[in-house]
Amino acid sequence: MPALPQGSPAPDFDLPTDGGGRISLADLRGHKVVLYFYPKDNTAGCTLEAIDFSAQAAAFEAAGTKVVGISADSVKSHDRFKKKHDLTIPLASDEEKTMLEAYGIWAEKQMYGRTFMGIVRTTYLIDAEGRIARVWEKVKVSGHVEEVLAAARSL
Questions:
Q1: CATH code (residue 143)
Q2: pTM, whole model, 2 decimals?
Q3: Is the pLDDT of residue 57 over 90?
Q4: Could you give the number of structural domains in the chain?
């Protein structure tokens, strides 16, 4: 299933986060929301992306936008990842892959001639009413956070 189209309602979710919390789309209503889906804690691209989003956390906040990172890693893994890299944004865990499937980013991937199921690095910008305003598929990390921030500011 491909990523959800612009203009469609964002599927609700309720997931555990690092630090023992929970986060849901309903809790974020009234704010713009960036959901960035990444394959794995403590891997090169995912670490850079998390550090970049954390570095811009205050700018996103000033733009009225909440940022949440999501992967299938456990909460315990997220806690270690966040501490190791001094990350400031919440990281949600979808070990059941329910949300990943609802957002169309749990898909067949290929690497080194091997086919497997995994997270396709994707970012969603959701407006304050809960509709998908913008989608970035197969994200390249370099410069991505700045592009998402510019889109959030213009929304």
A1: 3.40.30.10
A2: 0.94
A3: yes
A4: 1
